[in-house]
Amino acid sequence: MPATDLQRTFFAKLKSVIPHEQLAVNVSNVLQVSPGEAYKKISGKSLINIEQILLIFNRFKVNFEYIPVQSVEKILFS
Questions:
Q1: Alpha-carbon radius of gyration of the chain
Q2: pTM (2 decimals)?
Q3: Confidence at residue 62, expressed as pLDDT on a 0 to 100 scale
Q4: Residues near 20 by Cβ (< 8 Å), separated by ≥ 6?
Q5: With 80 as the cut, is the pLDDT of residue 71 above it?
């Protein structure tokens, strides 16, 4: 699953917590980016990074959900 699909899925989950019409404003405030940039992140046109994901998790109390290993590339640490 491409990163943009995962990102859109993440924001779809967030829409269940935040009213849709307030999502971009809230994301903009939390990430300290312009509303236009927030819309790009929500639509997947601009990628979010792990720090931004953590900011959103902490602010909106969104739980991390398991993503099956088959849907992401494997990274091995040794």
A1: 13
A2: 0.73
A3: 75
A4: none
A5: no
